[in-house]
């Protein structure tokens, strides 16, 4: 499902995604409509703009995470502001791309979100993680005690860099199934729901060399 308040962008993105073989089940023009339609249609992935009238994409993501947690949310926006990115991640977003991303990158991020392999655009990763290193994340539950294996630390470091399972496997010379196993173990140990939240936790707890 595609959510954006700009009709031309929304219709153009829908057409391009459909031409690539994706099934577009619906659309919405604002956050309130997005939550209502997503609960009704139950899409695998919601491509969500951040800045919209009536209800922002971050607020809609937070509500959707509660109402339909099986729907992955990919934030797609012109805004690379670190606060928006971090708010979206903490609200439960499964990915964050800028609107100037190439179509293949958007397609890859949609498939990754559907598979639970949340991605964040490299263009915004550095700023968000730098902010976390300097100021920390907003207050939340106390972090768990974490004991990662050396290989899990290697995988987590590449997750923080924004790599998907295929890229991690190539760089570590491991199979995709092995990487998926390590990633699942990391999420469980960190007590988080997706890979981007794992990256945030990794920086907060200084689990990797920065």
Précis, in short:
With 210 residues, this protein is of the alpha/beta class.
What's the SSE blueprint?
Layout: E1 2-3, H1 7-19, E2 27-28, H2 31-41, E3 45-48, H3 57-67, E4 72-77, H4 82-91, E5 95-98, H5 103-114, E6 119-120, H6 122-135, H7 150-160, H8 165-172, H9 176-190, H10 195-204
Parallel strand pairs: 1-2, 1-3, 3-4, 4-5, 5-6
Verbal overview:
This protein is α/β, with parallel strands linked by helices and 210 residues long. It folds into two domains: 2-132, Response regulator (Rossmann fold, 3-Layer(aba) Sandwich), CATH 3.40.50.2300; 141-204, Winged helix-like DNA-binding domain superfamily/Winged helix DNA-binding domain (Arc Repressor Mutant, subunit A, Orthogonal Bundle). The protein has helices at 7-19, 31-41, 57-67, 82-91, 103-114, 122-135, 150-160, 165-172, 176-190, 195-204, and strands at 2-3, 27-28, 45-48, 72-77, 95-98, 119-120. Strands 2-1-3-4-5-6 form a six-stranded parallel beta sheet, sandwiched between helices. It is globular and about 50 Å long.
How do the helices and strands follow one another from N- to C-terminus?
A: EHEHEHEHEHEHHHHH
Task: Give the terminus-to-terminus CA distance.
Answer: 36 Å
Radius of gyration from CA coordinates: 17 Å
Would you count the extended β strands for me? Answer: 6
- Main sheet summary: 6 strands, parallel
Helix content: 40-55%
In CATH terms, what is the fold-level topology of the largest domain?
Rossmann fold
CATH class of the largest domain: Alpha Beta
Estimate the strand proportion. 5-15%
**What is the arithmetic mean of pLDDT?**
84
CATH architecture classification of the largest domain: 3-Layer(aba) Sandwich
What is the quaternary state of this protein?
A: single chain
The CATH homologous superfamily name of the largest domain equals Response regulator
């Amino acid at each position: 499902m595609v959510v954006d308040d700009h009709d031309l962008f929304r219709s153009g993105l829908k057409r391009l995604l459909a031409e690539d073989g994706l099934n577009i089940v619906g659309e919405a023009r604002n956050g309130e409509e997005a939550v209502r339609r997503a609960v009704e249609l139950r899409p695998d992935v919601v491509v969500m703009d951040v800045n919209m009238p009536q209800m922002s994409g971050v607020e809609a993501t937070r509500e959707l995470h509660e109402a339909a947690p099986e729907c992955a949310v990919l934030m797609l926006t012109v805004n690379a502001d670190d606060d928006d990115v971090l708010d979206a991640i903490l609200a439960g977003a499964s990915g964050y791309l800028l609107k100037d991303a190439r179509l293949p990158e958007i397609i890859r991020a949609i498939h990754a979100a559907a598979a639970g392999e949340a991605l964040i655009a490299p263009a915004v990763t550095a700023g968000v993680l730098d902010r976390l290193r300097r100021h920390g994340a907003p207050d939340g539950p106390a972090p768990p005690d974490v004991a990662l294996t050396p290989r899990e630390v290697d995988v987590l470091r590449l997750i923080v860099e924004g790599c998907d399972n295929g890229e991690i496997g190539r760089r570590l010379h491991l199979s995709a199934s092995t990487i998926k196993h390590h990633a699942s173990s990391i999420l469980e140990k960190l007590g988080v729901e997706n890979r981007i939240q794992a990256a945030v936790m990794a920086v907060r707890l200084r689990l990797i060399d920065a």
